[in-house]
Amino acid sequence: MFGKQWHWLALGLIVLGSTGMLWAQAAEDQSKLSDADRKAFQSAADYSRESRGTAVLVMRAGEVIFEDYATGVTATTPHLLASGTKSFSGIMAQCAVEDGLFQLDDKVSDTITEWKSDPRKKEITIRQLLTLTSGLAGGSIGRVPTYADAIQGTAVADPGRRFIYGPIPYQSFGELMRRKLSPKSETVEGYLKRKILDPIGLKVGLWRKGPDGNPQLPSGLSLTPREWAKFGELIRLKGKWGDKQVVSAEHLAECFQGTAANPGYGLTFWLNRKAAEKSPDQPAEGENEGPQPKPLGGKVGPVDLVLAAGALGQRCYVIPSLDLVVVRQGFSRRNEFEDREFLSRLLSSSKYAKPE
Predict the structure, then answer these.
(1) CA distance 59 to 325
(2) Mean pLDDT throughout 13-26?
(3) Is 330 domain-assigned?
(4) Which domain holds residue 276?
(5) What distance in Å separates the CA atoms of residue 58 and residue 67, rounded to the nearest whole number?
(6) How many domains does the chain have?
(7) How far is it, in rounded angstroms, from Cα 347 to Cα 354?
(8) Which of 34, 52, 222, 347 could bridge 352 with an S-S bond, Cβ 3.0-4.6 Å?
(9) Which pLDDT value is given to residue 293?
(10) Is residue 333 a part of any domain in this protein?
(11) How do 306-310 and 314-319 pair as beta strands?
(12) In the chain, what is the straight-line distance between the N-terminal and C-terminal CA atoms, in Å?
C-alpha cells in the first residue's frame, strides 16, 4: 500500500520469519471485554500476525483493553513508524499557527526566500507542503534528504494540482520550521518536545536524524505501541490532554480536510474518504517518484476514522465515534497487509459494526 519495502527500515530491528512464528499475548485487562469484542480483536490480531505483524493494541476511552505481541516483542519494544511519523508534523504545524509563527496559507517563499526566483515554488503554501499537493517531486522513498537538500528539490507541477507522495515536502517544512525557530534559539526537535511530546508524556524510543542533526520528519520516529497510542488519544480527544488544550480542536480539525487532488489525504493524515478518480493534472512519465497509496475509500469503519500510516504496515487508527485508538506494527510486505481486512475483523462485533 505504501510503496516498496525500505531496505534501511529493517536495520537494527528484529527480522521475523514468515512461518513458524510463536506469539505471546499481553493485555492490560481483557476481562472487561465482551466475548464478541474479544473474538473480533483476536481475529484482527490473527490476521496481523499472518502478515508479519509484531503488535496490535486497542485502546478504548483512554484505557488499553487489548494487546497482542510477538515473542521477543513487548509493550516496551520501540518500532520504527516509517511514514507514520508524518502526522506529528501536522500537529506541530497547528501548534506553530497558534503560536503566531505562520498561517497555513502563507507562502513558503516568505521564509525560504530562495524559492522566490522559481515560478512554481514561489507560490507554494505551507498547507500544500503538508497535504502533499505542493507540486514538488516527492523524492525517493527511504532516502530522506537533509533540510538543505530538500529545498533544492524541483517543482514538477503547479501547486494544488497533484498529490505527490514522498519525503521532500516534509523536509522542506522542517527547514521552514528551523528558520522560524532559530531566532528564538529553539530547534525543531525541541519545539516538538515542548509543544506535543512532553504535554502528553510521550517517550520517544528513537528519532532518526540526518547528517545535519535535524529530525527526519517524514519517517524517522520509533515508538512503542503504547506511546504511539498516546498520540492517537490526543487526536481522539480533539487536542486536549487532561486539563491542557495541547492544540485547539478547531485547528486540529483542519488536519482532516482532504484536497481536490486527493480527498483521501488531509494535512498529514489519511482519511476514510473516497479518492478522486484522478488528479487535476496527470503526472508526466518519471515525475512521480513516490508511491500512490491505496486509500481506505470510505468502505470500512465510520467516516470519522483517521489514520497515521507507514511502510510495512505501521498504523495508528483513530475512531472518535467509537472511542477507539488502535495501533498495529509489523514487517508486512507490499500488499500483504490490507487495512480493510484488518478493520473489518476488528470492528466486526455488534458494538463496533457500522453500516458502510
Answers:
(1) 5
(2) 36
(3) no
(4) 82-223+243-312
(5) 6
(6) 2
(7) 8
(8) 347
(9) 54
(10) no
(11) antiparallel
(12) 22
For residue 49, give the amino acid letter.
Answer: R
Query: CB under 8 Å to 152, separation ≥6 — which residues?
Result: none
C-alpha separations of 328 from 48, 181, 198, 238 in Å: 8, 34, 23, 22
DSSP string, 321-347: GGTEEEEEEE-PPTTTS-HHHHHHHHT
- Nearest 5°: the CA angle 334, 336, 337 is 105
Do residues 86 and 61 both lie within one domain? Answer: no
Q: How far apart are CA 304 and CA 302, in angstroms?
A: 5
Domain presence at residue 319: no
CATH number at residue 173: 3.40.710.10
Residue 355: pLDDT band (50, 70, 90) is very low
As a whole number of angstroms, the distance between CA 10 and CA 48 comes to 18
Backbone angles phi, psi at 153, to 5 degrees: -60, 160
Residues 162 and 205 in one domain: yes
Whether 90 and 255 have beta carbons less than 8 Å apart is answered as: yes
282 and 307 co-located in one domain: yes
* Residues 115, 151 within the same domain: yes
296 Cβ contact list (under 8 Å, min separation 6)? 264, 270, 271, 272, 273, 305, 307, 339, 340, 343
Backbone angles phi, psi at 102, to 5 degrees: -170, 175
pLDDT tens, residue by residue, 75-100 = 999 999 999 999 999 999 999 999 99
- Are both 87 and 73 inside the same structural domain? no
